[in-house]
């Protein structure tokens, strides 16, 4: 119970719904879906470095999309059969926060699309 209270104090209500309750922000509503800034995207829950702007691409889906994570050691992939679909959930390994989903329709070189909620991320802009 204390863990849940701590998360509610640390996160905004939208971040809490996404990171802790596995919700999804509305398409095209997040602050990073269209950003072209260079830098590193960190987990908004714990600050872990997860994605680089070098792998970000415009998927047209309304969420920040990346063709690769910075390290497979920093994320966890889990089967997700909620909402009558078969998807792969992307979790921050450090804090267990729900980030988004992984799809097999991305560009090269991986062919992957990490479709991540903006509110689950904080960007550290490169100077």
From TrEMBL:
<keyword id="KW-0862">Zinc</keyword>
<protein>
    <recommendedName>
        <fullName>peptide-methionine (R)-S-oxide reductase</fullName>
        <ecNumber>1.8.4.12</ecNumber>
    </recommendedName>
</protein>
<dbReference type="InterPro" id="IPR011057">
    <property type="entry name" value="Mss4-like_sf"/>
</dbReference>
<dbReference type="InterPro" id="IPR028427">
    <property type="entry name" value="Met_Sox_Rdtase_MsrB"/>
</dbReference>
<dbReference type="GO" id="GO:0030091">
    <property type="term" value="P:protein repair"/>
</dbReference>
<keyword id="KW-0560">Oxidoreductase</keyword>
<feature type="domain" description="MsrB">
    <location>
        <begin position="4"/>
        <end position="126"/>
    </location>
</feature>
<dbReference type="GO" id="GO:0046872">
    <property type="term" value="F:metal ion binding"/>
</dbReference>
<keyword id="KW-0479">Metal-binding</keyword>
<dbReference type="GO" id="GO:0033743">
    <property type="term" value="F:peptide-methionine (R)-S-oxide reductase activity"/>
</dbReference>
<dbReference type="Pfam" id="PF01641">
    <property type="entry name" value="SelR"/>
</dbReference>
<dbReference type="GO" id="GO:0006979">
    <property type="term" value="P:response to oxidative stress"/>
</dbReference>
<comment type="similarity">
    <text>Belongs to the MsrB Met sulfoxide reductase family.</text>
</comment>
<dbReference type="GO" id="GO:0005737">
    <property type="term" value="C:cytoplasm"/>
</dbReference>
<dbReference type="InterPro" id="IPR002579">
    <property type="entry name" value="Met_Sox_Rdtase_MsrB_dom"/>
</dbReference>
């Amino acid at each position: 119970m204390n863990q849940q209270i701590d998360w509610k104090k640390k996160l905004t209500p939208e971040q809490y719904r996404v990171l802790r309750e596995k919700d999804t922000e509305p398409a095209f509503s997040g602050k990073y879906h269209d950003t072209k800034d260079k830098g590193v995207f960190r987990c908004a829950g714990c600050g872990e470095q997860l994605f680089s702007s070098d792998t970000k691409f415009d998927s047209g889906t309304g969420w920040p999309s990346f063709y690769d994570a910075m390290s497979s050691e920093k994320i966890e992939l889990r089967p997700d059969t909620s909402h009558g679909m078969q998807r792969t959930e992307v979790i921050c390994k450090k804090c267990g926060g729900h980030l988004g989903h992984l799809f097999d329709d991305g560009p090269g070189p991986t062919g992957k699309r990490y479709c991540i909620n903006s509110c689950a991320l904080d960007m550290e802009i490169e100077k």
